[in-house]
Amino acid sequence: MALLEVKDLQVRVDEREILHGLSLTVNEGEIHAIMGPNGSGKSTLSHVIAGKPGYEVTGGEILFKGDDLLEMAPDERAAKGVFLAFQYPVEIPGVVTMNFLRTAYNAQRKARGETELMAPEFLKKVREVAKRLSIPQDMLKRGVNVGFSGGEKKRNEILQMALFEPSLCILDEMDSGLDIDALRIAADGVNALRAPDRAIVVITHYQRLLNYIVPDVVHVMSKGRVVKSGGKELALELEASGYAQFDDAA
Amino acid sequence: MAAVQETVDRVRRIDVDQYRYGFETLIESEKAPKGLSEDTVRFISAKKHEPAWMLEWRLEAYRRWLTMTEPTWARVDYPKIDYQDIYYYAAPKPKKALTSIDEIDPEILKTYEKLGIPLREVAILEGVEPPAGGEPSPSRKIAVDAVFDSVSVATTFKEELRKAGVIFMPISEAIREHPELVKKYLGSVVPTSDNYFATLNSAVFSDGSFVYVPPGVRCPMELSTYFRINERNTGQFERTLIIAERGSYVSYLEGCTAPQRDENQLHAAVVELVALDDAEIKYSTVQNWYPGNSEGKGGIYNFVTKRGDCRGVNSKISWTQVETGSAITWKYPSCILRGDNSRGEFYSIAISNGHQQVDSGTKMLHLGKNTTSRIISKGIAAGVSQNTYRGLVTAHRKATGARNYTACDSLLIGDKCGAHTVPYVEAKNSSALFEHEATTSKISEDVLFYCTQRGLSQEEAVGLVVNGFVKDVLQQLPMEFAVEAQKLISISLEGSVG
Ligand SMILES: Nc1ncnc2c1ncn2[C@@H]1O[C@H](COP(=O)(O)OP(=O)(O)O)[C@@H](O)[C@H]1O
Ligand SMILES: [Mg+2]
């Protein structure tokens, strides 16, 4: 079943059109990779799906589980199962990570009409997931992302993804700034989340990541459009011949 | 996080632009003729049945005030105040002389009830969260002195305090009943000539609280005063004097509210604290005077002089303030660290939203040897407000081993407000060690989006970030106040995003 359907999406920022009629369908259980050169609109697409303010949608639609996503506030989208792992996660000083996780987790449950999880239960759950991702306990006591290394920030994103159990995970350049070991831990974390009722979309510039997270479908973006889609071999093709070949297509 | 959730729920229930305490109490009152003259001063003094020395003290202050000019150095901007257009004294008209709390005008009792302040002598049980995993707190008593416009209308738990030897009464009564103490200490920390507003207060103050804790006594309960301005065009000039004798301890709380009115009202208080050898005074304020409406109309002008004198060795004075109200706040609770090894602390949360202007901070004057001080200031600016921290730390020539640590953090919400830090430091003793840290941060769009992407609403996100920001200071407040203050903070910042 189609989990996410982006149809002919046109998006402007400050009067300038950045996505010029982009279409994309992601089914449950699939892993998609979106590749493309810098400035092709990958982050813009992820932001618009998650509901970041400041973008003007001038045409097209986004359906998520059949509902109009563009009608919903970002927190409603999150509660409905949209998760975006940021390329540059922000720091929130003074807000202890563990408290942040619990507040967010319970806010989502509440929005879905589920009961909130009590502290001891939640703590146990977080510890489990954190251990799997090699996240030290003391990181959870620090301010959200404050003083975290690049790798720790990314792992903190994946930790949240694992906790919230979203149906759609979008990861924007999760490989940027990670060394090979950190990349492997993060990728293992993502692979562990593969599930028949969940889709994962990895946005990346490089094919390297796709050695660790193997996609079912690869899309190439250029100048605000998806210009080619194919199987995982498309990524290798790109690695060999570069993005330049798509300039004309765009 | 329960408190955050509660805060958010509370915020949802109230309308934007709705100051909760903005109601007016309809009672008859007795006022001095409008304007300020020697006659006004005499009128007030006579109303209070004051002894001649007190009237003389006031008149001297009044004459001094006539020669002074309003200070202009603070980063606040307001139209000229017409000191002749203010009532300097307003008192609820008593139906007859009061002998017990049951005889207080029911309208006034209702007012304090609405404000959530118990004037009847009941222990406060609710509003306290049990510490995590621990026993619920035992019932705590808080003695209350309630000041309505210019007079104190009720002081609770007087008897029980008297047994402990603690004097807690309206200052007007103390002037009559304990003249030797008042004479000795009044104006000894903030002299009548101190500054324009303090001098004005010295001339026309009408009531406030007086506390005396005898040697070696740990005051058996929290003391608190609630100030309420009700009358139109009325100034409130309260005067508080707290004396902690050798080896004593007292914790004192102060809360303030006022009705919502289109005109500005003047509040110029003076608070003096004296801590003798080994004594400790903890003074907490939650200031929530009416801040004016969303267009900046109305609101209280809050020009306050608060100063503590650590007169004895090993004495300690700690100020904690949560300033959310007032159109203008001009306030610098300070410590004179006179006794060797004495310690001064200043913990502040100052919030400005809408058109509010805050210029607040502290002075730590190190005079004695090995004196220490600590300043933690958290300024939050939203709307089109201006929020300034202004601080002075000095070490006297003889203040060998003086230490200060200052941390000033500012948080901006939106991009039309301003936060400013103005620290002055002056060490005349080379062994003094002063540290200063300052940060300015912003609740940016990116932080808000990050939080909302994780399922928090805009308000929850702001609440979370703000609570994280002020946490260190909130922890300094007594529990009941901390919970209340946290709610107040969210309410004050309502409508600041989105
Ligand atoms: N907030 C913004 N304001 C103006 N231009 C923007 C903004 N965000 C993105 N752009 C522009 O949109 C285009 C696509 O950017 P982006 O989505 O970040 O691409 P990618 O993630 O593929 O590198 C770029 O030309 C970029 O400069
Ligand atoms: Mg990008």
Q: What does this 3D model show about the protein?
A:
- The complex is a heterodimer of chains A (250) and B (498).
- By secondary structure, chain A is an alpha/beta fold.
- Chain A has a single domain, classed as 3-Layer(aba) Sandwich (Rossmann fold), CATH 3.40.50.
- Chain A contains 8 helices and 12 strands.
- Chain A has helices spanning 42-50, 74-80, 97-111, 119-132, 137-141, 150-164, 180-191, 233-241, and strands at 2-13, 16-27, 31-35, 56-64, 67-68, 82-85, 92-96, 143-144, 168-172, 199-204, 217-222, 225-230.
- In chain A, α2 (74-80) packs across α3 (97-111) and α6 (150-164) runs parallel beside α7 (180-191).
- The model of chain A has no long low-confidence stretch (mean pLDDT 92).
- In chain B, strands 5, 6, 8, 10, 11, 13, 15, 16, 18, 20 and 22 form an 11-stranded mixed sheet that branches. Chain B has a 10-stranded mixed sheet with strand order 4-3-7-9-12-14-17-19-21-23. A two-stranded antiparallel sheet of chain B has the order 1-2.
- Chain B has 11 helices and 23 strands.
- The radius of gyration of chain B is 22 Å and the shape is globular.
- Helix content of chain B is 23%, strand content 34%.
- Mean pLDDT of chain B is 82; it is low at 1-17 and 121-139.
- Chain A binds chain B through residues 50-54, 73-75, 77-79, 83-84, 86, 89-90, 92-96, 99-100, 102-108, 111, 143, 160, 164, and chain B through 1, 4-5, 441, 444-447, 449-458, 460, 464-465, 467-469, 471.
- The complex binds adenosine-5'-diphosphate (ADP) and magnesium ion.
- Residues 42-43, 87, 172-173 of chain A line the site of magnesium ion (MG).
